[in-house]
Hints:
The complex is a heterodimer of chains A (635) and B (295).
Chain A: H1 7-67, H2 74-89, H3 92-98, H4 113-137, H5 145-164, H6 166-169, E1 176-177, H7 188-206, H8 208-218, H9 220-225, H10 230-256, E2 258-259, H11 266-279, H12 284-307, E3 309-311, E4 314-316, H13 319-324, H14 329-344, H15 355-366, E5 394-403, E6 406-416, E7 421-425, H16 432-439, E8 447-452, E9 455-456, H17 462-467, E10 470-472, H18 485-499, H19 507-513, H20 529-542, E11 547-551, H21 559-576, E12 579-583, H22 587-593, E13 596-601, E14 604-609, H23 611-616, H24 618-634
Parallel strand pairs in A: 7-12, 7-13, 10-11, 11-12
Antiparallel strand pairs in A: 1-2, 3-4, 5-6, 5-8, 8-9, 13-14
Helix pairs in contact in A: 1-7, 1-10, 1-11, 1-12, 1-15, 2-4, 2-5, 2-10, 4-10, 7-8, 7-10, 8-10, 8-18, 11-12, 11-14, 12-14, 18-19, 18-20, 19-20, 20-21
Chain B: H1 2-32, H2 41-55, H3 60-81, H4 91-113, E1 118-119, E2 129-132, E3 135-138, H5 139-161, H6 163-173, H7 175-180, H8 185-211, E4 213-214, H9 220-233, H10 238-258, H11 267-281
Antiparallel strand pairs in B: 1-4, 2-3
Helix pairs in contact in B: 1-5, 1-6, 1-8, 1-9, 1-10, 2-3, 2-8, 3-8, 5-6, 6-8, 9-10, 10-11
Amino acid sequence: MKPPGSFAGVRRDVAFPMTGAALLAAVLIVGGAVYSAAGGATADKLVTAMLIDAIMVVGLQIYIGNTGVFSFGHIGFAAVAGYTFAVLAIEPARKSTVIRNAPWGLNEVHLSPVQATAVAALVTLVAAVVVGLGLARSGAKSGSVSAAVITLALLFVTHELALNWTDLTGGDRAGLSFRIGNTLEGRTVIYVVLVAVIVMARLFAQSRIGRLAQAAREDNLAARAMGVNPVAGQMAALLLSVLVVAVAASLRVYDIGNITPKFFFFDYTLLTLVMLIVGGRNSVTGALSGVVIITAGRELTRRFASDGFEFFGVSLDAPVVDWLLREGLTQIFLGAAMLGFMILRANGLLGDWELDAWLWRRWRRRKPEERPEPLAEIAPVGLHAEVDHEGAALEVHDLDVDFGGFRALDGAGLTVAPDEVVGLIGPNGAGKTTLINVITGVVAPSAGWFKVGERELTVAPSHDIARAGLVRTFQNLRLFGALTVRQNVELAARVAAQHRPGSHPPVDALIAEAGLWDVRDRRARELDYGSARRLELARAAAMAPAYLLLDEPTSGMSDAESAEMIGRIRHMAAAVDAGVLVIDHDLNFITGISDRIYVLDQGQVISAGTPDEVQADPAVRSAYLGAEIDAQRRG
Amino acid sequence: MTELAQNVIDGLGRGSIYALLALGIAVIFGVMHLLNFAHGELITVSGYVAYWVFSAGLSWYWIAPLVVLVSVGTALAIEQVAFRWVRGAADFTMLLTSFGVHFVVQAVFFMYVSASVRNFDRPRWITNTFDVGPVTIEVFDVVVIAVTALTLAATAAVLQRTMFGLSLRAAAEDFDAARLMGVKSDRVIRGAFALSGVLAGIAAIFWLMRAGQTTPSAGITPMLKGVLAALIGGLGSLRGAVLGGLLLGLAEVLLRSRLPDGIAGLTDGVVFVLIALLFIFRPGGLITVSRAERV
């Protein structure tokens, strides 16, 4: 058995991302240097601005990309940082003319640029914690409107403050400015920061916490069902991204030499967002490509607007063209870029693609990985060795659930012993899925309770229930689509490593067991239906659960596939030493897999026993099997 | 007491316009889950039309119906050019699409129409006031409130009594189910945009009467107010949108008159903080429209 931090894993998760990131930074830096050498002072300025924008946009990417939560507020954070930096770093002699009455004697303070940046970062991080807690409280998730509003509020509030708190900010007219010549010299600092930030962003995306954030982005509900608390990943991403944004803002102010309220407001928000989404917000490589493309496009349109159309020697000189190309063209370009990409390619040019993924694939082609040992041959895994399972039964008692006037569960209860496979059948609408939803914290019961062993879990949040060992699959597949097969399983294993005691099944073996070894580096959303079902099973098993709760694991499968699934589920459950509660309508499947069966009808358990007993029960025959058997006879 | 009564009337006048804008935004959100940041462009376009018509020597009696027509036309055109291509896309995609529309329209006006402010005369009666006891009431506020009330009543009648209204409400409840029941999605969505255009057009008349001018970026403020009002009320809830608009108007007027002098300039900022707090503690807005996720 390979140790968890195997060499190949380190290479994949650390070495290649760092190489890729360094390559990217090098391309940007060298390309920029060449362009500015060729183009003189204007080009020099343009490239410097682009490199700082690149830092800013990578900062945005860390949050928006990893969490999927849409933030309009990052430029608001930039404003906080920019003003803090300016107030602290501008020399007192200069401040005494603009902000003579600055509060707390700030007009006397004079810090070095590095110190000022550090303080600016700290202040902004404090603001980020407050906003982050608010976002968490609002239940922010991918695409949520409330998060967009809260962050938009931040942008406007900082702008209003900058306008009105003239004692500190100098207001709208003057703003704050450095003495000419007292600003950022050379690009060394920018280069260093840029490289560091790109590497950091790549490593974060690859890290445990980064993956948790991405899982919640891909499917909030499924992430919680895998024991992921989305708040943790979002908060980590927010703090790191705001740190980067704060540094970028300080650099921008220091480079340009002044700051006014509109400096970090709507226009800059639009610019950075367009850069982020054009290249692809889910990838650092994408974000940086966006920065280059948009910077180039903006420069071109600006030139067209001022000097007329001339592009690589082709020039158009007609009154119509001159009329068409005029000031404002860059704004149209930005708006159209956003609109065009949203309509034609919403995930940006590169989507999820990273440069290092390509490096990794090339490397692996040269050195193929060894196929792992099958699960059965790996000596006892799961909890059995360390934890005494006796008495850790899953008990569900008298659950009631009401949806409006409809009673979905009416005193339903059941028990599953460790190592037992229990089936739950019933006609459509009997309350089967509702029961699983209740015991995984998705739906709150109005009465009743459930516990595993001595631990009552009735009011626990989803992710705590999953960590306590109740892990489910979903009727309508919920995989983390943008993550690869291996990353899906790895994520569950990482959560288990942190929150589940005992030893854990090796990730590669589970993948092989599910018959997914050959597609392990494919993204989950590219899988065919059967493979996706098996991946859900493997992902749940990687949590080393006490109980696997399977919601229609064979729905949509052929009879032959269902039959094969019986062996696979039993084998995998035994290998990770989990009890199983499985729902299905397919009678052959349920009787084939279960040790015992509960029959649910209109929210009540109407029968329980071995498959034979249940099939012989007249109540069951009339409520459920009768209809089924008739249908089979006819069909 | 007198001051409060004064504030309430001013606030309702202001809030009525917000309510009309918010209702249009809520109608569109209901049928296609799009938070329309381009809603203010209807006012921008209407504003230039008002200016041209006015320059041609016509009076407000001509301008008013024209503005409504233009607003409806613009709403339908924007749907046709941009939003129909992102129907059913992720919320994120639709949100940014509307942003893109907003920026493109603004830039087009800036470049090809006029970068500077265009003025037109406001109708003479709008500054008239009359007194009821100690309270001074602007005729304009009374007109705005009355017309808004009529418009809302008419809208309610359309939504409750007509086949179109029924399909629209059904689609807002559950779009897929409505489609399976034979509601034509294309027609409902276009109808929703037309309705939002009518509402925005009426709001635009008042907005322009009071402003007496327009610029390429004139749509930003009304757009923000409308979006915020719709959000406060609870996105997708039509009643909520109206309620949100009135509340936003009242809150602004009350804050502006009650905040101490030093921070009165921060009214918008304070309103934003309040809204952020509302969203932190009630992410669905005041009237939460429940949308159960199927598991």
